[in-house]
Amino acid sequence: MAIKSCVLLLLPVVLLLLAGSSPAVAQLEIGYYSKTCPNVEAIVREEMEKIISAAPSLAGPLLRLHFHDCFVRGCDASVLLSSTEGNLAERDAKPNRSLRGFSSVDRVKAKLEAACPNTVSCADVLTLMARDAVVLAKGPTWPVALGRRDGKVSSATEAADNLPPAFGDIPLLTKIFASKNLDLKDLVVLSGAHTLGTAHCPSYADRLYNFSSAYNADPSLDSEYADKLRTRCKSADDKAMLSEMDPGSYKTFDTSYYRHVAKRRGLFQSDAALLTDATTMEYVQRIASGKFDDDFFKDFSESMIKMGNVGVLTGAEGEIRKKCYIAN
């Protein structure tokens, strides 16, 4: 509790500083719905408590939905739109085919529509759900400024072009993050979200089989861990098998992810890449020591605030969708 109290005390200052740095972000407000839907956060939290209580493994996927939304066209809920006859939407792009949690978002949105019709955007709903997913998985909390509007465009091509790939190295990942006004520290901190959730075999199988002409397996992956993964992932074509991204702790938000990465047991190449840069490696090793959990919680909260402000639509931009999967 002391950790979370510290985060709550420090973050409003951070939020104000971030808000002052961008005209769009300045229009996001704490308490944005205080007059039009004063119970918005309580409604979202109550429904999220039911969702995570029934399916604790959904915390990771709901956090991932928010990530994948913000990296394509900004945090505008475009990832939630369904494909139409003439358009393949983000959610059907190859990197997004394993996304889950859409029905949970629809469920929360329906509760808000019943309480406050045509008021709360899907983009705000998803941002609040991601925060609450972390809190309910025993992670930190942070204040969420609201007032995002929903986008009307969703493109699978844009998703494929903008999402950080699991095979990414530091130069590529740094470039992608920088395009969203996120820096190297945000990269290593937000990678800590891999403490929650699972991954399908095809997303990491290339590290286990025919990695290169010189190596069958990725030499940056601990060999014993690689052997263990092969028992679950029999081939690169196995699309049914799941592996925990943070083995033994994938439903709990903690720092054990960094201990796995420090031991060369990160599941993705992008995890292993954190050990190839002096700055990110130092952060991994520091948090992996287990002595700075409160620092990581604070850092993660600050980086989530930054990411949640990426490319937002405000004011008269976009719309407030009635249903998150279809534009009005």
TrEMBL record:
Its cofactor is heme b; Ca(2+). The active site is at 68 (proton acceptor). Substrate binds at residue 164. Residues 1-26 form the signal peptide. Binds 1 heme b (iron(II)-protoporphyrin IX) group per subunit. Binds 2 calcium ions per subunit. The keyword Signal applies. InterPro entries: Haem_peroxidase, Haem_peroxidase_sf, Peroxidase_pln, Peroxidases_AS, Peroxidases_heam-ligand_BS, Secretory_peroxidase. It comes from the Eukaryota. The keyword Lipoprotein does not apply. This is Peroxidase.
